[in-house]
């Protein structure tokens, strides 16, 4: 629960985190703050609806669909470059990671709370993205 839910619900803790889109600028960058925050809320609700310590395969698909929706909405124009890179890395990592690969990181016993499949630099940007979410989408 800790490993995957932290990145998924970090946005929710602060507020309460395109299959076909690419990380090289393919996501919209002109979303309204309201639409962006609505998608963050959706991710939070989907993530918090997980009943066990780890998502089932169907719950994982729901999480991926929520992140895909976020990718389709994109980010507001005022997001910083690092935060935008973190958004892209998070959306890409979650939407591209199949369930068998993802479940290897669920509930990591070593306390690792990184997003699966991303570099150390991307992880730093993902953290910056979730800080931005916390500041931008306060309830």
Task: Throw out a few tags for this protein.
single chain; mainly alpha; globular; signal
Task: Outline the structure in words.
The chain has helices at 2-14, 33-48, 57-73, 81-96, 99-103, 120-136. The protein has 139 residues and is an all-alpha fold. It has a domain at 33-104 and 119-138. Helix 1 packs antiparallel against helix 2 (33-48), helix 1 packs parallel to helix 6 and helix 4 crosses helix 6 (120-136). The longest helix has 17 residues, at 57-73. Residues 1-25 form the signal peptide. Keywords: Signal.
What gap, in angstroms, lies between the N and C termini? 24 Å
| Largest β sheet strand count, sense and barrel closure | none
Outline, from the CA principal axes?
Answer: globular
The beta-strand count equals: 0
Average predicted local confidence, pLDDT: 80
Order of helices and strands: HHHHHH
Rg over C-alpha atoms, rounded to the nearest angstrom: 13 Å
